[in-house]
Amino acid sequence: MLFSSIPFLYYFLPAVVISYFLVSWLVEMIGKKLGLGQEKSHRASIFTKNLTLLLFSLVFYGWGEPVYLFLMIGSILMFWLCGLAIGKAQSQGLKRLWLTVSVVVSLALLAVFKYADFFVENFNALTGLSVPLLKLALPIGISFYTFQCLSYTIDVYRGNAQSQKDIVAFGAYVSLFPQLIAGPIVRYVDVARELKDREHNWERVHLGLRRFVIGMSKKIILADNFALLMSIFRDSSEQSVLFYWMYAIAFLFNIYFDFSGYSDMAIGLGKLFGFNFIENFNYPYMSKSVAEFWRRWHMSLGSWFRDYVYIPLGGNRVSKGRWLFNTLVVWMLTGMWHGASWNFILWGLLYAVCLLIEKWVPAIQKLPAFFRHFYTMLVVTLGFVLFNADTMAQVGTDFAGLFGFGGLPVASTATWYYLRSYGALFLMGIIGATPLVRDTANRLYESKKLGPAVAVAETVLLIVLLLVCTGYLVDGSFSPFLYFRF
Fold first, then answer.
1. Cα–Cα distance between 118 and 124 in angstroms, integer?
2. Using one digit for the tens of pLDDT, what is the confidence trace for 69-118?
């Protein structure tokens, strides 16, 4: 089930919200009537909320492929037991043993479901053998929830978190539907307190719904229309150099508004249920270096690799050779996390090389801001062309097209037509990728004269956006799901 769908928006979400608040309220009231006291009644209410989220999250996850519910439930049980074992172990050796079990199992799950066929294909290519492929369907969100489970057992091992004894609370954390399939990657330590007790009020509900509608609008109105242009480009017989660059920039905006839109929806839904998920994007296309870009893009993934891979390897407090090795390993793994294909690995290593150059050539940071921004966005744009290719052959074709090889014309009749047709969308993409709209809205809110009127206008705008998004969904508009690849 997708956030950007009629079943989720008008059936699933209302059902879970009503059940979440109504059932927990009834439990708390019954507890008070039975004389359990306010504290026990409140604990029972929190347990009911977690149970409601767990059950609805399992329905959400199993909607498309019910068989993988067994994988999800098995992961919950296994990591919960490992966490308990680490917490109860009396010796460091036993703690390390159970941590190793959790790491090996999680990596094995990824290896089997996500990478097995990639390794077999390359093994066959090298040896000339014909080892059969497993051809297993990729469980949705497996890259996200396995990393979340790993962060839990590692933090319990390090003493940064206590093991969770309540399997319902832990199950709700692992399967929590708002961030299950598209992040952000939520660490257990960041929501441990909220699993035990969390607040709900109208202000949070308002902020959550606003964030959700804005995220959905970014996904449906902007990202999906950029995806449509990309599809038109692939099907066109009148490709040109300019059309290739339109495609590259369209994907630049498509992946940003798609991914950040889903993160916005997840953060908004989290607020609705009392959780404060971390931010995942901070206007990355404003960056003036590749390093800054990765401090602003998919921040939960970057911080995960930093804290659980890069720093344990020694970080940058090692010899230059070891630091080079650490950097290459982390960025190769970052690429592999996104998919089992050589283009993803090369994409990760591209960023490793760029980061190393920025570190070793400090003169880059002395260039005027415009040139640093242009260089960064050129690297990011070309990197995403590599990222989005289905095959390495397509990578070669796309780069040849971008730089005018193969006898392509600079432009064509189709190019000018689609440039005119999608010019307004590109302008919206440029504006939407900057803090301009946010900063303008904040200034208007802070105005004593305009503040009340702005609040009313915002409500009307959110309703209009919801109706527009609903219209797109009812119409069955083109809406690809980017995260099936992850």
1. 10
2. 999 999 999 999 999 999 999 899 999 999 999 999 999 999 999 999 99
Residue 3 makes CB contacts below 8 A (sequence gap 6+) with: 9, 216, 219, 262, 265
In one-letter notation, the amino acid at residue 138 is: L
Instruction: Give the Å distances, CA to CA, from 46 to 35, 200, 399.
Output: 18, 12, 54
The catalytic residue among 42, 206, 298, 338 is 338
Q: In whole angstroms, what separates CA 72 from the centre of its chain?
A: 18
Q: For 140-240, where are the alpha helices, taking DSSP H only?
A: 142-158, 167-175, 188-196, 202-217, 224-235
| CA separation for the pair 295, 55 (Å, rounded) | 35
Question: What does the pLDDT look like over 355-399, one tens digit per residue?
Answer: 999 998 888 888 999 999 999 999 999 999 999 999 999 999 999
- Both tokens of 155, joined, read 């933090």
Task: Say whether pTM exceeds 0.70.
Answer: yes
Comparing CA positions, the residue from 135, 154, 284, 272 lying closest to residue 206 is 272
Clarify whether 338 is annotated catalytic: yes
Residue that has been written with the tokens 């095959």 in this structure? 391
- Looking from the CA of 19 toward its CB, the CA atoms found within 13 Å total 16
Q: What is the DSSP letter of 308?
A: I
- Give residue 454's pLDDT band: very low, low, confident or very high (50, 70, 90): confident
- Asked if 198 and 290 touch (Cβ cutoff 8 Å), the reply is no
